[in-house]
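Re: the pair you flagged

First of the two:
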Amino acid sequence: MEKIYVTGHKNPDTDSIVAALGYASLMNATGKREFVAARLGHLSDETHKILERFDCEPPVYVKDMRTQVRDLDFDVPPILSEAVTVNRVWSAMEDDKHISAIPITDDDGHLRGMMTAGVIAAYDMATIEDPTLREVPLFNVLSVLEGQMLNECGANTIIGEVVPALPHGADMPLFRSPDTVLICGDQPEIIKSAVEAGVKCVVLCRAELPEGIARDRTMFISTPYDSLRAMRRIFQAIPAGRLTGDEKIVAFHLTDYIDDVREVVLESRYRSYPILDEEDRVVGTLSRFHLLRPRRKKVVLVDHNELAQSVPGLDETEILAIIDHHRLADIQTQNPVYVRNEPVGSTCTIVAGMYQERGLMPSKKLAGLMAAAIISDTVMFKSPTCTDRDRRIAERLADIGGVDLTELGQFIFSASAPEDKPIHDLFFADFKEFHIAGHTFGISQITCLDSARQLSRKREFLDLMEETRKKNGYSMIILMLTDVLIEGSRILCLGGEDTFNQAFNVELRDSEALLPGVMSRKKQVVPMLSALWG
């Protein structure tokens, strides 16, 4: 069953993670079992503690959504052991005319080579000049000739030059050495001569073994095929692994990206390429036409609709739905999609409403998680983005989950910004990039109970911000230390200081300012800059 990934934004916060879990669970509960919650980055300390409290596993980590080999409708031909006969390989190709190559593997499934009709034809032509069998397993010969042993002589392999018996009345065949495989019909005199010459193997084609022939030194095999067919088929008894040359094989893995695969395929001459899994075992084959219409990964976006905040390779995916509570941004889709964008404080408020609409109550664990996400995103209902609906939904979820919202809020924000955490991890735990009116800028938000204590690391923050601004070419970079207790944010800003001062009617001093009542990046900071830039 094809997976559909439900993913939030980069540097995911609690609302983004829980919304993905909640939406995937909702869709799976309504009979669509292929939805998988995913995340695009590491969990923040806050989110990690919340998931631990409710004994919930985090979503799977997804690095990007570029189309991979695993997304193609590649061929799955028979994958044969190097011990099978060439005849068995040819039969497999005859059974399915669409197969251009068959992978040959060792006993562990690891690739040894690729068998094609051309390889088999080249070997068949070579047997005209050198009609010799070299230690071919007896079982293989009996298989391709559909033969039976007429005596036991202790040998498990057949060695020798394959020689056809001449018709009656012609000169007797020349047995150059005992290492000869004689192909004959009902020709008693020739058989007797071969035994006297010490020939090691005689293949009887539609004939009986003559009376009085010694059986102690010569192996006798009976076959229903005539001499001509037996002569050609016996060469197909060699193990297929012997025809896999030393040439380096071009192979791809399930995790390889199509863009990289396409470049290799265009520069090479093969018709078919083996596909390997993570343990280098063969799982199928790929041809050029598989690259023409690759199957795209399917995704649902939650808590964002901005390309810069989404998964790399999003343009190669099929977006099925967007569930969000932010401004409409720049993500484009190839087909009409389901979009639900509502002016509430948390995406989980929307997801919880979807449970209610479908007459489905979330589990106790999931209800507690969604209540925590709403508290986190609305900053204990103090954010200007918070609505009465957020409160009502959170209270209903808390009742189902058996949690106290006040206690849960204290638990969340006491875990948000530990002092011993590396400055890089603190800054990028909830960082978003924006593109507005030709300006590219970034805003990090840290929600805490004591912003003054976080400012003791001001110099570390500013050094990291300057490095990030130069590296990414930002016109402005901002850190919001949102303090739940003072119901405002202490701001650090580098680049575009005059713009910031004008937008918020403040004066940055040593890159720092206090914005009372400002709790929301989405509703109070980004819109002011957007309005100023037009």
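Second of the two:
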Amino acid sequence: MPMEELHNIYRGRIRQFGKAIHRQTRRINLFSLARLVVLVSLIWLLVLGVRENELLYYLLSLLMLILFLSLVSIFNKYKEERELLRQLKMLNEKELACLDHDFHDLPDGSEHADTSHPWSHDLDLFGKGSLFQYLNRTSTQEGNRQLAEILTTEPATAESIERRQKIIADLKDRIDFRQNFTATGHLIKEKPGDLEDISRWLGTSTYISKHRWLFFMAVGVTLLSLTLAIWGIFDTSRYWLLLYLFLLNLVVLSPFFMRTQQYQAIISKKHDLLEGYARLLKQIAGTSFNHPELQTRSLKAMKGMHEVARLSKLLQIFDQRLNMLLGFILNGLFLFDFIMLHLLEHWKRRNQQEIMEWIEIAGWSDAMISLSGFAWNHPDYANPVIDEKSGNLEFEGLGHPLIPDPKRVSNDMMIASEKVVVITGANMAGKSTFLRSIGVNMVLAYTGSPVCATHFRCGFMGLHTSMRTADSLKDEESYFLAEIRKLQLIVQEMESGKPMLILLDEVLKGTNTTDKKLGSVGLIRKSLKYPVRCFIATHDLSLGELEKEHTGDVVNYCFESYISEMELTFDYTIRKGIAINMNASFLMKKMGIVD
């Protein structure tokens, strides 16, 4: 699909949802007026009923009350639908902007940043202008967490990558499902810690579980209260019995009040959150997928959507006790706390093992929708081929996905038996960007997403990088020591015999030239003993001599800079050999730093 067609699809959807919002607004205004008319009619009929003492007016006013409540329900439904349409319109506007690499107002995932991670810090996976910010479309906190986990976790097998590719392929063209799911998720008013509270609530128990008789007593009291209330219609003196029962119920409840409060504090006001997740599960359950894993999750979501919605309703009713007056009346007449605690604990016993799985299904779907949306937005990207039998690494047209197309310079490379690739070149020539291009595309391959290349084939291997080491004042750790520790972890992984892709940028930057060279040469020679593909970018041209010493195992590539008419230029194209031109002294002269 050409990129211009993608632009047109998003523009068309923006227009479509804009018109739908306009129509919905007119409906809302119409029903708002109708509500007012019915309310005025209701009051007028009540006044006539009182003045004329006619039963007909009271019956008509009751019908008006029913009609008014129906109109309120429809009015609220239309408002919810309009809000969903607004979310869909905004979503397509964001997608249109992202096609032009305008994505810096999206959530950047800074909370997931980890300087000690084997590759995420070096490859700028999180933070402003990061890969996460570019592809993240998650609308739930669980989806956000799972997407970050997918980006920072090596898949267990090559088959798991292929499975993800097929799942993404199944979701990619389902633009209505993807966008409806995301827009629905954005309507959930989710706060940090909400899911932890639900998990904590699942692990609690309450006195009602040990004293089941309290529930049966509450049922008996409820029946008695209703009987006395009905009896009081015919004999008002019986209301005194209801008052005595009311006071007795409050006395019975008083020893349990604080324990009920503590129980509710954990799960209070979570009904909107759970209702939102129930809607997400309903969308998953209502979609016919092709991939077996999506079908399995859809079947689980079918049960989950009903049970989560039921829990939401129970919590909504339970929260009515937070209204002091209403809670006072409900407990005084019906021992409301005992009844609700029994119903909630009964729900928990039936669904305790599954509710977090249902939430996980919604979050996983949210994360996979982000990845499939990325695939949809990049029809010219290639699906990587992960070949377990071959350790080769070959790519054509490889570039960095965060560099816009007009500025991106793509490169080709084929690494067969060679274990170490030494990349030389001047400052700003493109060495670091090239290493990050390889690393970021490897991460995309892990996720099952297409990569920024026309062809990408590699063996199944782990990933480790040392490109941007952070020092730590808190731990009194210098930049140099931090880098040494990172290299130590890489060597430990290497020595395990696990196939690995290693990306190193200017090893041992914090030491003198001689020490740096000795350490770099030692690390390269050590890596030759193991099944690794090690890319090392350096300014030290002498490392290029290792190609002759280890023919077939070490290969030289370079990026060149060019000085013409006192102007420094780069072509950012990788080529075989050792770099010839350096630019530091030229730049210092041009900027007047040296003579």
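Residues 194-369 form one domain.

-B.
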